[in-house]
UniProtKB/TrEMBL annotation:
<feature type="domain" description="EF-hand">
    <location>
        <begin position="70"/>
        <end position="105"/>
    </location>
</feature>
<feature type="domain" description="EF-hand">
    <location>
        <begin position="194"/>
        <end position="229"/>
    </location>
</feature>
<dbReference type="InterPro" id="IPR002048">
    <property type="entry name" value="EF_hand_dom"/>
</dbReference>
<feature type="signal peptide">
    <location>
        <begin position="1"/>
        <end position="20"/>
    </location>
</feature>
<keyword id="KW-0732">Signal</keyword>
<keyword id="KW-0677">Repeat</keyword>
<dbReference type="InterPro" id="IPR011992">
    <property type="entry name" value="EF-hand-dom_pair"/>
</dbReference>
<protein>
    <recommendedName>
        <fullName>EF-hand domain-containing protein</fullName>
    </recommendedName>
</protein>
<keyword id="KW-0479">Metal-binding</keyword>
<feature type="domain" description="EF-hand">
    <location>
        <begin position="157"/>
        <end position="192"/>
    </location>
</feature>
<comment type="similarity">
    <text>Belongs to the CREC family.</text>
</comment>
<keyword id="KW-0106">Calcium</keyword>
<dbReference type="Pfam" id="PF13499">
    <property type="entry name" value="EF-hand_7"/>
</dbReference>
<dbReference type="Pfam" id="PF13202">
    <property type="entry name" value="EF-hand_5"/>
</dbReference>
<dbReference type="InterPro" id="IPR027241">
    <property type="entry name" value="Rcn1"/>
</dbReference>
<dbReference type="GO" id="GO:0005509">
    <property type="term" value="F:calcium ion binding"/>
</dbReference>
<keyword id="KW-0256">Endoplasmic reticulum</keyword>
């Protein structure tokens, strides 16, 4: 079970559910940011891609409830928030950071939903003891109720693993997690200092013979439960070829940690950076490589469209996490 399944695992255990070996393909590759619109990025035809990048997909859908005047008014308030250093300009870097934060809002909303369940003493921090008791307390106090060997093994495996991940997320080492540290704990794929944990947990999940590497059979077994005597689907054959041709970079027949990192944490094109550059280029009237509020409002339909969103509601909320 990898980092992506850890929270699901906890929920299953708490609700009496069970985990079963997958029979279909499992996706290991991490895509930290939710995908933007499937629409082609056609500058002169549709701004849907730009709207979703700038506002988020759900917010962009509801912007058609506002008049152009309301839309521009709310866009002006957004611009004030994007301008972090309050110098009156929005740079490409500020715009990129805003787009990334909008894309990751769902992560912070997820953390907000579970925060109060773990912050038992309401000190606005979550200690390792609070998390351990909330997640594993029942098992630790009633081990006799967990007779199933698989469940016992899962608990014994996940408890120290969660503690190791918690300590990695706990940057100041005080055994308590701030909201940002707890976000890193629950969503390690989103944080650079947690990437080694993501790789290590993936290796531990797939490396059944515990030799510190992932061979081709282990790689396939993680995706596909093969029935005795049954033929492998075409996609499995393709994955074997992918393993040999692309995953196994040094061609030694197995994946080490660095090759696993290349596989599950690909260094793809930075969509937020490209979109920020595009928005600046299209709106920068005086070509000084940065935008004034006036330049953005002049080209407002590229940012928020001629229809607008419940983003107005979003502006009234406290979004410290963004």
């Amino acid at each position: 079970m990898g980092f992506q399944a850890a929270c699901c695992f906890v929920l299953l255990l708490c609700t009496g559910g069970s985990l079963s070996k997958p029979t279909l393909r499992k996706e290991r590759v991490v895509h930290p940011d939710p995908p933007l619109s499937d629409q082609l990025h056609e500058d002169n035809q549709s701004f849907q891609y730009d709207h979703e990048a700038f506002l988020g997909k759900e917010e962009a859908k509801t912007f058609d409830q506002l008049t152009p005047e309301e839309s521009k008014e709310k866009l002006g308030k957004i611009v004030d928030r994007i301008d972090n250093n309050k110098d009156g300009y929005v740079t490409t870097e500020e715009l990129k950071n805003w787009i990334k934060r909008v894309q990751k809002r769902y992560i912070y909303e997820n953390v907000a939903k579970v925060w109060r369940d773990y912050d038992v003493n309401k000190d606005n921090k979550i200690s390792w003891e609070e998390y351990k008791q909330a997640t594993y307390g029942y098992y630790l106090e009633n081990p006799e109720e967990f007779q199933d060997v698989t469940d016992q093994h899962s608990f014994k495996k996940m408890l120290p693993r969660d503690e190791r991940r918690f300590k990695t997320a706990d940057l100041d080492g005080d055994s308590t997690a701030t909201r940002e540290e707890f976000t890193a704990f629950l969503h390690p794929e989103e944080f650079e200092h947690m990437k080694d944990i993501v790789v290590l947990e993936t290796l531990e999940d797939i490396d059944k013979n515990e030799d510190g590497f992932v061979d081709q059979d282990e790689y396939i077994a993680d995706m596909f439960s093969h029935e005795e005597g049954g033929p492998e689907p075409d996609w499995v054959i393709t994955e074997r070829e992918q393993f040999s041709d692309f995953r196994d970079i040094n061609k030694d027949g197995k994946l080490d940690k660095e090759e696993i990192r290349h596989w599950i944490l690909p260094q793809d094109y930075d969509h937020a950076q490209a979109e920020a550059r595009h928005l600046v280029y299209e709106s920068d009237v005086d070509k000084d490589q940065k935008l004034t509020k006036e330049e953005i409002l002049e080209n407002w339909n590229m940012f928020v469209g001629s229809q607008a969103t419940n983003y107005g509601e979003d502006l009234t909320k406290n979004h410290d996490e963004l």
